[in-house]
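Before the break, one more example. Copy the sequence into your notebook; we will annotate it together after we see the structure.
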Amino acid sequence: MPLDMRLPGKLDTGDEPLLSQARPSSDHSDERSVEEEDALLTGQKAQQPRNYGWAFWREVGLFAWALIATVLVILFAVLYSHQQQTSKPTPSGGGWKNGRPTGKRNLVFMVSDGMGPTSLSLTRSFRQAETGLPIDDVLVLDEHLIGSSRTRSTSSLVTDSAAGATAFSCGQKSYNGAISVLPNHDPCGTVLEAAKRAGYMTGLVVTTRITDATPACFAAHVNHREEEDRIAEQEVGDHPLGRVLDLMLGGGRCHFLPNTTDGSCRKDDRDVVDLAKKNGFSYVNDRKGFDGLNFGSNVKLPLLGLFAPTDIPYEVDRRNMNDVYPSLDEMARTALAALKSATEDSDKGFFLMIEGSRIDHAGHGNDPVAQVHEVLAYDTAFASVLDFLDEDDVEGVLAGTSDHETGGLATAR
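Here is what the structure looks like once it is written out:
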């Protein structure tokens, strides 16, 4: 059999290389080779021509549509909000005009005197532990917390209640101890006085003396908070503007009684209760008298209710003397109902200041037991005010704040 003898690596001229196929060169082969060589020499990737197909342009179209839709939704929301603010009707017939509210309105201003963030934290944890609530349970106050404020007076980095309440009531800062007077001792008009002059009904509810710094700053003007005898006189109508208060509920009876009677702490023999009655006030001074008010349905305004010689006891003690002293929540609900009834046929509403007064005292006394119960009592009253505003057919606003922290309360492990 003949053998075909060939040397390795040698091909006949007519043979084709293994795997070789006829493949024409690209018209751009030389150009591509040059680009690839430049990329190798320079280290920069050669730019390849892009082919923008249907999928690419589809995504561009979807993105543009989403962007336009988002802009339109934002514009619609802004226009709708503006329309609601400038022309929305209210159940009481009020509305908005030129960005300002019109019609009947009620304003409740609440002050948690001396309460700082740690007071809330301690009270929250105490309530959870005492009643077996989960660790994510919160106070009513927590659900409405929107921020914090920096407070100071013109005379100190740490404000007291007098300068703090002067800032609240007048909108201007003053020195510690000032009762709605400026650093030059000129009196400043208060929001309560402005409300009264505008035809609104007004009231104060506290658990300290009704002549104490915070309530005094809304309805009196003296150079120092210790002038409680004079504050009492102004609150019942011996005032440059006349009577500016329609309702007062709290303690501090001793400043209204002449020093010739038992239970007085006045330095003179002026009978301020008698002065109040001459100015039209009805007067109650004990639990029986308070119960007779029937939670506001049996109130004759103006009303002066003084339920303790000085301060109403701490809530941790008061709850064991409920037959003697009304609670902050009871007084708040009574005041709300009384003022609502009194303004039923008026085109004006009311202004009411409610203070959780003795949170401050518990802080000064470094008494955590008293403090958590005072905060809980304030939280209960806060919830009652919210319920009232939700159920009332008159537009109403609740604003709550603290004037300062007291006692340097800290919690740590």
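The CA atoms of residues 9 and 17 lie 11 Å apart. Confidence is low (pLDDT under 50) at residues 1-13. Try to locate both features in your own notes.
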